[in-house]
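Please decode residue identities from the backbone states below.
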């Protein structure tokens, strides 16, 4: 530093730079940011809380937590179950709303509240938008990408494939797969990962009953790898950005095209050689829309993938929890075993659909498992037509 007397008397030729204290600037910036966040919070909160169309009705309680604007969304992404439980306990209502980003998610908790959900028609509460993230997996023009009139016809085809006579025909295939699996994968004693083991068994049975003999016998490993890539293409981020160019999404898209090509080859071969199989591929091949047109191979592939995904995870989760609870309650396990021993006296060693239907203890165990550990934590619809519900007497 130079003393004042040492400074030049003539004006400097270089530009002057003003030095200001940094702390006040950062403080002002923080205050401004907080004010903007607060304004945005209340603006979005107001935007997301519309006035009811009927002045005599009130909206469900509105629950938020954490940082303004983003706190509830962060909590939801972190642990949706825990957030919903806190909202349920703190609002004291079976119907409440959470603001998640620019969306309002209204939750209905409990049997009475569920009535307003399950009794609504598709034209009132629609599935299409909430499940649009599944379109890259199932394909365009099927299930949640189809217009509602087409979607309902496709669901009717699903129902036809799961009628009683069809279910009875699947039992023999399932028993064959289960016998082979347990004889080769399980010994007389030891330890297994129950979820991993039962998931593998369910993939085998589902492949045989749903995807057909050709795939089970000659293309199982290849198709299993493709199904795995499809499954891994449904990441949490996929719900919000299903088309994001992520490696998992790219592998999903490639797998989807390859599976479509495999089904197309099987369908064309059956048509060319004029033979039929007792499986779901054949049911979809023989199905017609109301206008008399057949499903395309693209649509059949999408429907098969959809029904496989619908059953695979729910079945593996439910069967695992049923097994764990039976092992944890040996008295109930003993009742189930005694019941099956008694049924063997009536039906012999042949396990049939009718025999399975008489396993009341085992059925009750599965029902209680579904009550305690539902495999789907949320069922989601978009409100098209306002619904009302009296949640307080």
């Amino acid at each position: 530093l130079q003393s004042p007397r040492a400074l030049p008397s003539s004006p400097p030729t270089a530009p002057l730079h003003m030095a200001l204290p940094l702390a006040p600037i950062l403080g002002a910036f923080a205050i401004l940011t907080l004010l903007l966040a607060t304004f945005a919070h209340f603006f979005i909160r107001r935007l997301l809380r519309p006035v009811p169309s009927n002045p005599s009705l009130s909206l469900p309680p509105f629950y938020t937590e954490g940082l303004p604007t983003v706190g509830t969304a962060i909590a939801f992404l972190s642990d949706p179950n825990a957030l919903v439980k806190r909202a349920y306990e703190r609002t004291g209502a079976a119907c409440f709303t959470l603001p998640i980003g620019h969306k309002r998610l209204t939750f209905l908790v409990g049997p009475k509240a569920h009535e307003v959900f399950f009794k609504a028609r598709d034209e009132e509460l629609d599935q299409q938008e909430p499940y649009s993230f599944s379109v890259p997996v199932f394909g365009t023009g099927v299930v949640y990408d189809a217009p509602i009139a087409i979607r309902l016809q496709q669901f009717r085809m699903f129902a036809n494939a799961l009628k009683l006579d069809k279910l009875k025909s699947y039992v023999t295939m399932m028993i064959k797969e289960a016998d082979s699996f347990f004889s080769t994968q399980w010994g007389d004693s030891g330890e297994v990962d129950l979820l991993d083991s039962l998931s593998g068994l369910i993939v085998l049975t589902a492949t045989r009953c749903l995807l057909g003999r050709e795939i089970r016998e000659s293309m199982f490993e290849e198709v299993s790898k493709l199904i795995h890539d499809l499954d891994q293409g449904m990441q949490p981020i996929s719900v919000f950005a299903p088309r994001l160019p992520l490696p998992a999404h790219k592998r999903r898209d490639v797998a989807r095209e390859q599976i479509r090509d495999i089904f197309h080859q099987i369908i064309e071969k059956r048509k060319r050689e004029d033979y039929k199989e007792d499986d779901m591929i054949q049911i979809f091949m023989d199905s017609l829309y109301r206008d008399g047109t057949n499903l395309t191979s693209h649509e059949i592939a999408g429907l098969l993938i959809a029904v496989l995904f619908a059953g695979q995870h729910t079945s593996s989760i439910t069967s695992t929890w049923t097994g764990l609870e039976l092992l944890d309650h040996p008295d109930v396990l003993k009742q189930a075993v005694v019941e099956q021993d008694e049924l063997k006296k009536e039906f012999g060693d042949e396990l049939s659909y009718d025999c399975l239907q008489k396993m009341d203890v085992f059925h009750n165990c599965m029902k209680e498992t579904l009550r305690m550990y539902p495999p789907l934590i949320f069922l989601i619809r978009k409100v098209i037509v306002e619904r009302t519900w009296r949640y307080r007497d």
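Observation: The chain has 17 helices and four strands.
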